[in-house]
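Example 4.3 (complexes with small molecules)
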Amino acid sequence: MKFSTTLSTSILLLTTLSKFTFAAPAAAEPVHTSASTIASSIPDPENDASDDYLVVLADDDKRPWDEVFAEMGYNQTTFSANSVDDDGNSDIKTFGTNMRAFTIKMKESGYASVSAMPNVKYMERNIIEPWPSIPADLAPLTPVRPVKRSLWSKLNFRKRDEEQPQAQVVIQQGTAPWGLQRISSTTPVDPAGRTAEDLSYKYRFDKTGGSGVDVYVLDSGVDVKFAEFGGRAKNLFSAFGNNTDFTDEIGHGTFAAGVVTSLHFGVAKNANIWGVKIGDSKGPSLIGWWQGLDAVLAAHNQRKSQPGFKGSIATMSLGLKNGSYSEALADLFGQASKAGIHMTLAALNHNEDSCQRFPQMLTKTLPLLTVGATNISDTRARFSNYGPCVNIYAPGESIISTSAQSPTGAMVQHGTSFACPMVAGQIADELVKNPELRLDTEGMKKLILSKAQKCAIKKDPNPQVGEILLLNNGFLGTPS
Ligand SMILES: *[C@@H]1O[C@H](CO)[C@@H](O)[C@H](O)[C@H]1NC(C)=O
Ligand SMILES: *[C@@H]1O[C@H](CO)[C@@H](O)[C@H](O)[C@H]1NC(C)=O
Ligand SMILES: *[C@@H]1O[C@H](CO)[C@@H](O)[C@H](O)[C@H]1NC(C)=O
Ligand SMILES: *[C@@H]1O[C@H](CO)[C@@H](O)[C@H](O)[C@H]1NC(C)=O
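Answer. The structure with 2-acetamido-2-deoxy-beta-D-glucopyranose bound is encoded below.
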């Protein structure tokens, strides 16, 4: 197993930990001086809710976990049934690549004292946010629905002698969804009597597009056995079932992965997919996201010195609740970016300024790409967020991709969630052509933006939109 080092480290830590008790600090017997601080917070038994917290240690705290916990006042011998939650998992989990962290279920009353401890860098209560959806009043006219197999069964790929000097072999797919045609031409799509759900549009791409690039899909899980992934998809991490539950309960991650790399519907048809499950049907959680991105960072650090490494992309079609901000996650985004992980984020679907959303707003300070959605008429989709924190737009309405409902199914869906993985696919393609940008997240962002089409998107009635760019893979004109 490729990532065995990372995994076995966390397993080891977990085993060590199970010796400790993690009752609410307010109720714990103090063992050391610092622990009396914890004991001094007075719980309000009526309203003292128990919740999951993410605790990140200060960078300079390199001590073994048992020392850290002993200092916090946790008594090893009183380890009790409390320390196993309803799912049968231990209440405490430790992890961390560049930053060491643990999760703990505790009462709200313990927050102030634990977060004030000198060795605690961040302490944040978990947030669970539903998966991005489109508010009913902004929903496109065509419903989300399955696509009949007979409509997409024949792959029509042909070799072209063309244009692109960089490309070894150019392929044209004659059975593509409209979005793929749009990103491989400089002219608007002419439906010519077809609907946006037709599979007869033309996509031009480099034969080797995305080959060997690792695309980490932080989402609801990925159905890696899907035939369209051709064995290039694997699971890396799950925040559920003690890293064993990879089931994509809602299909969001499988669909997004299909936009990156599926044979019929994907942008970069040779990329590797790594499923990172950070939410179940209830939605992604802050803790799951932190853990998932941390697992990606560990995998990337390990892979980047191995032969055959072509670059890493983390694609994330989600965001936290309106008004939330996580310092712990922002810090990790910064570290991932610095380590050379290219990141794409969906702008989300509220038809409002993306800069008020976290982590989309981080694009002001980090080389991330936040992606808005357009429709087949080259108009910003009614639901797409906009504003200066949207770096680029890509097709996101009437998108067809892999459905988790059956290993050979396809669906029509809408959302910036599915525009985002188009940009991830394009980065995968560029990583093969521009190996010097492998770890250069700034340089890659500049390249993607410089190849994008300016002024292709119709004038937006929202004055805040400014110059908006449409994703493009460099093929000129209209595919014939
Ligand atoms: C831990 O708790 C047990 C049981 O309550 C107690 O006997 C023991 O003295 C405690 N240990 C420390 C170091 O306080
Ligand atoms: C989690 O998985 C590891 C490795 O499979 C195992 O050793 C450990 O006991 C599991 N922990 C729980 C709480 O199930
Ligand atoms: C998100 O929060 C902002 C600022 O409070 C508010 O203007 C906006 O309407 C909220 N959006 C939604 C979808 O609730
Ligand atoms: C694209 O979106 C615009 C703005 O909402 C809308 O006017 C137009 O009808 C849409 N085009 C299609 C084909 O749905």
